[in-house]
Amino acid sequence: MAHTVKSKKKLKHRVRRIRGQLNAVENALEAEHDCSKVLLTLAACRGAMDALMAEIIEGHINFHILDPKQKPTNEQKKAAQEVIGVVRRYLK
Predict the structure, then answer these.
(1) CA separation for the pair 40, 43 (Å, rounded)
(2) Residues 45, 25: contact at Cβ < 8 Å?
């Protein structure tokens, strides 16, 4: 079973929150709010999208690059965690 199927409920919840944040951007533009408010709302959207992307990438690494059917070596686990850490830092 794919990791996105296992985590479907959690991932969909994140997507709904992102959708709500995007609606807030649209509403702020429609209400002609100050650009600083629009920018802050956009930054929140970007952070939420980045967190979703990082979570899916982490699952991809753990379920498709490291084969969960085979026990990965400590070296493979460490390398995977290093890549995941880099991705998470990059997407912050």
Answers:
(1) 5
(2) yes
- pTM of whole model > 0.85? no
Distances from the Cα of 66 to the Cαs of 10, 90, 91, in angstroms? 22, 21, 22
Q: Looking at residue 34, which CATH number applies to its domain?
A: 1.20.58.1000
The parent domain of residue 49 ranges over: 7-90
CA distance linking residue 57 with residue 8, whole number of Å: 14
2, part of any domain: no
Residue 2 has pLDDT above 80, yes or no: no
CB 44 within 8 A of CB 28: no
Residue carrying the six token digits 């985590």: 7
Question: Six-digit token pair at 62?
Answer: 């753990």
Is there a contact between 45 and 15 (Cβ–Cβ < 8 Å)?
no
